[in-house]
Specification:
It is a single chain. By secondary structure, the protein is of the alpha/beta class. It is globular. The chain has a seven-stranded mixed sheet with strand order 1-9-8-5-4-2-3, with helices on both faces. Strands 10-11-12 form a three-stranded antiparallel sheet. A two-stranded antiparallel sheet has the order 6-7. The two termini are 19 Å apart. α5 (92-100) links the parallel β2 and β3 (104-108). The protein has 14 helices and twelve strands. The structure holds pyridoxal-5'-phosphate. Residues 64-66, 90-91, 93-94, 136, 162, 164-165, 186, 188, 199 line the site of pyridoxal-5'-phosphate. The site of pyridoxal-5'-phosphate (PLP) has 14 residues, from α4 and α5.
Length: 392
């Protein structure tokens, strides 16, 4: 490592840092001073602003994207023995919600050299017990929704979108959140919009929204929170066994402040992606993500792949090397089928070669609005050195 590199390594560039400013802090203080902390006026305001932003008919704020996915499957009537098709290249949450309902997560492979599910594999996985397709917009790049919606229509299946990475993302001009039956967003600490923990479920129909809304708060009829306001009554009815998935006004206040910056934050991530793309493309040791002409990518992740035909170091060694140079990196994702839970369900190594190939080479680089151009250059410089020092 050169002297300058050693110097730079002293200040660690984290893989992610949330963009929290005075707006978020002031908004939280205001809620704390208001005397009403949990689900209330801020949550309803956040839902209205969010639904407007993504062009959805309905939006329900919840405690996490996992909660949103669970409610989505409940709302479309998933029950024991049903099959849900989803990509193996995703996070734990996308698959576990099927298991909550004793339904079967049916995993499918990625397209070759891609992190997105292969629509042909989705079509091939359909059986008489298939009820829904869970589409994941990996990294913020919308997956092939046109093909997936076609397959769903043809086989009368519901489409639930895991849009944990996809705010804001566009597919052929339409915002993600306005496409499928239900779309689930995450506001977890590392996501493109954060409320610390939180999520949103947008729905196309009133019926699905109503169903999720009731289930999200103990199965109590929908304006339950209003019973604490001047216009409310103490009386309520429990319609069924629901869950405790509501969002708090504290979270919603952060969300509203974040939503106002959402386009600017995306703009900054897109320009970081462009800077990475321009410089890293020249390195034979790494494959860079494709920059689409009509870029609808939220750029939640910027994932490069180690080219093992050129470099004599593997993905893990490159991540270690970056760490020594003071740069945080990550991997998205260990495909679901390689985890013990899915082995117990009968999945084996080698089952999804495209996903395994992608996983083995993948490195997620830091990409967040708080990064300076110098931070981005530092990552590029480190990768250039790693590239030059490790040729076969
Ligand atoms: C983060 C994430 C989730 C879960 O989001 P939470 O809000 O933490 O529940 C679901 N799916 C994907 C693909 C994710 O990355």
């Amino acid at each position: 490592m050169s002297a300058t590199a050693a110097l730079k390594a002293r200040t660690f560039l984290p893989f992610h840092r949330a963009s929290i400013g005075k707006e978020e802090i002031d908004a939280v203080v205001e809620v704390l001073r208001s005397g009403w902390l949990t689900t209330g006026p801020r949550v309803r305001e956040f839902e209205a602003a969010f639904k407007n932003y993504v062009g959805a008919e309905h939006a329900l704020a919840v405690s996490s994207c996992t909660a949103a996915l669970h409610l989505a499957l409940l709302a479309i009537g998933i029950t024991e023995g049903d099959e849900i098709i989803l990509p193996t290249m995703t996070f734990a949450a996308s698959g576990e919600v099927a298991l909550y309902l004793r339904a079967h997560p049916v995993l499918v492979d990625c397209k070759k050299d891609s992190f997105q599910a292969d629509p042909a594999e989705i079509a091939r996985a359909i059986t008489p017990r298939t009820r829904a397709i869970l589409a994941v917009h990996y990294g913020g790049q919308p997956c092939d929704m046109e093909a997936i919606l076609d397959i769903a229509t043809h086989h009368r299946l519901k489409v639930i979108e895991d849009a944990a990475h996809a705010l804001p993302s566009r597919h052929k001009g339409a915002m993600v959140g306005s496409l499928g039956d239900i779309t689930c967003f995450s506001f977890y600490a590392t996501k493109t919009l954060t409320t610390g923990e939180g999520g949103m479920a947008t729905a196309r129909s009133q019926e699905l929204d109503d169903r999720m809304r009731i289930l999200s708060l103990h199965g109590i009829n929908r304006d339950a929170w209003k019973r604490y306001t001047a216009e409310g009554s103490w009386r309520y009815e429990i319609l069924e066994a629901g869950y405790k998935y509501n969002m708090t006004d504290i979270q919603a206040a952060i969300g509203l402040a974040q939503l106002a910056k959402c386009d600017d934050m995306r703009q900054r991530r897109a320009s970081i992606a462009a800077q990475y793309g321009r410089e890293l493309e020249a390195l034979d040791g790494f494959h860079t993500p494709q920059m689409e002409e009509d870029d609808g990518n939220a750029w939640h992740l910027y994932v490069i792949r180690v080219n093992s035909s050129v470099l004599r170091v593997n993905r893990d060694q490159v991540i270690e090397d970056l760490k020594r140079r003071g740069i945080g990196a990550s991997v998205h994702f260990i495909p679901l089928h390689l985890h013990p839970l899915y082995r117990r369900l009968g999945y084996r190594d080698g089952k999804f070669p495209n996903a395994e190939e992608q996983f083995n080479a993948a490195i997620s680089l830091p990409i967040y609005p708080g990064m300076t151009d110098e931070d981005v250059d530092r990552v590029i410089e480190a990768l250039s050195e790693i590239d030059h020092q490790n040729r076969k």
